[in-house]
Amino acid sequence: MKGHVRRRGPDRYEIAIYQYRIGNRRVYYYETFHGTRRQADARCAELVIAREHNRLADRAELTVAQLADEWFDAIRDDRAPNTLRNYRSLLDTHIVPLLGRHRLRKLDVVTLERTYRMLRRGETPTGRALSVGSLRNVHAVVSGMCALAHRYGWIPDNPARHVRLPAEATSDGFVLPDVTDVCRLAADVGARDPDREAFVYCALGTGARRGELCGLQWADIDFEAATVTIARTVTRTLDTAAWMTKVPKGGKARRLALDDELVAVLRALQARSLDRALAAGIALPANAFCFTPAVDGSRPWSPEYVTHWWGRACRARGLHIRFHDLRHLHASDMAEVAQIAVVKERLGHSQLKTTNRYTHVRDDADRAAVQRLAARRTRARE
């Protein structure tokens, strides 16, 4: 059966597509279309094809919660496990509790903006107000869901495209950790396990992510060329508590130069690994993990294990330094002596705007700059 197009006002048409019969009642899919009659007829033809391919949902029954399940299943094979866990958390904590019972046909800009205001004010079951950044993460998921519904022909337009979000803060208030404090923390964890101290210095010297350092193997390190290849990262699987290795974020490996001090640290780490393997009467393979709980290097440290002992050391000294902050510290130090493009490649970012969020200006940078300029003028007068 063909659909029907009825004029409902100037440049406004109602499209009705027959779906099925319940008893004596026929169930139709309705859509309001804004445009010319020819465009409305073309849209009607698209919806008829969608019905024939079973892609036309009954908007009177479809809810946002059902759309959330459909969207998550659609992206499941194309996203990293960590990303999927974050999406699932946003859906279960914020989106489904507030919007899940809404009929998809009634989801509009007003409903979304009111929901976002509730999230910003903390008027939710969790009682926790979201920051602008967290709200934008929620909106990214909602926008993806609505885009899928629009592509499937379940809604005439994507209302998330028209939502007005609060402006991002001009300053994130992030304070770079002091390198002296970090070195003291490295000494604290090194007193318990020297491998942990080496891990901290690897983070300071490379700016690699926590999971990337856990995934380092001895075959990735070229001591003669003083380089290390970041070829994999350790991450948790989506449905189980097991850990897995995969390519680094961004989908490609990168090669980083090492300073002499870090090369010495890694040589000492390798010597300890060889001694442990020799004491157990086994040979250390080339693909053994550098940071491992196993004598043969067959298993890597988990990122959660790193967070555990690092957090305990910070609490003992009364400091609030995330391990990820060392990546910010490395990026900011590199930005003072190298071009931003070099920092971008070293951190493995695909866009410069991401790198800019990792580079921070120190409080004394302004004074140090004017002192250097003053010294230059003094030399010029001599």
Average of the residue pLDDT scores: 88
How many structurally independent domains? 3
Reported by name, the CATH topology of the largest domain is hpI Integrase, Chain A
Note the overall shape. elongated
Largest sheet: 3 strands, antiparallel
- Helical run tally: 14
Spatial strand arrangement across the major sheet? 1-2-3
CATH architecture of the largest domain: Orthogonal Bundle
Share of helix among residues?
40-55%
Q: For this structure, what is the CATH homologous superfamily of the largest domain?
A: Intergrase catalytic core
Radius of gyration: 28 Å
**DSSP strand count:** 8
User: Based on helices, strands and strand pairing, what is the structural class?
Assistant: mainly alpha
User: What is the H-and-E element order?
Assistant: EEEHHHHHHHHEEEEEHHHHHH
Strand content is: 5-15%
CATH class of the largest domain: Mainly Alpha
Descriptive labels:
single chain; 382 residues; mainly alpha; DNA polymerase, domain 1; hpI Integrase, Chain A; three-stranded antiparallel sheet; 14 helices; 12% strand
